[in-house]
Specification:
This protein is about 15% helix and about 25% strand. By secondary structure, the protein is of the alpha/beta class. A 6-stranded parallel sheet has the order 1-3-6-8-9-10, with helices on one face. The chain has a two-stranded parallel sheet with strand order 2-4. It is globular, with a radius of gyration of 17 Å.
């Protein structure tokens, strides 16, 4: 295959199949995988690290299903500009081994699902250039984790989106406010 355009065309025309033994997967900029197809990735039995970014996924709503992402330790969602809503049912079947959640440049995402607060292995939530409500939901998850005895969860919130009440919907109504000090950690510590 030559370049991204060939892969993009391939992904649109063919059913996606990944090797079942894959441990790390990064998809960036293909703009062809709908959220509905994430169940294919979620079913990979050995997947530990998943990075999705810059329009690799198409659509606004991600609904995870029970039993998906059983081995996933690291999840990074970056530059998914149309991603608005993430639905997770209240179940221990979602992301049971997740340690790090990184959300950067998910401008329209409204919140981190509160069910993420049930994940006992969670060690880090890193939010950068997202809606204020995403940072607030991270803080709520931190409180829930503390109530469960997880004192080790770190929350990093940087450059939160602030709406200046510009209703012309031209995309220029976004400013950033540094909510926390930037400690130089880019939240991409997946061990790879």
């Amino acid at each position: 295959m030559t370049g991204y355009s060939s892969l993009n065309r391939y992904m649109k025309d063919e059913k996606i199949n990944f090797p079942s033994n894959i441990k790390k997967l990064s998809l960036f900029g293909f703009n062809s995988l709908p959220w509905e197809e994430m169940s294919i990735i979620g079913a990979l039995p050995n997947l530990e690290i998943l990075k999705l970014g810059y329009s690799a996924i198409v659509g606004e709503i991600w609904e995870t299903r029970d039993g998906e992402f059983q081995q996933l330790r690291f999840l990074k969602l970056e530059g998914l500009y149309n991603f608005c809503k993430w639905d997770i049912s209240f179940s221990s079947e979602h992301f049971p081994k997740l340690q790090q959640l990184v959300l950067h440049d998910c401008w329209k995402l409204q919140e981190i699902p509160c069910a993420m607060g049930e994940i006992e292995t969670l060690q880090l939530i890193d939010v950068k250039r997202c809606q204020k409500s995403v940072g607030e939901s991270a803080t709520q998850i931190e409180e829930e984790q503390r109530d469960m005895g997880n004192e080790d969860l770190r929350i990093i919130i940087r450059k939160i989106l602030v709406d200046d009440d510009d209703d012309d919907d031209d995309g220029d109504d976004d400013e950033y406010d540094d909510d926390d000090d930037d400690d130089g950690d880019d939240g991409d510590d997946d061990g790879q």
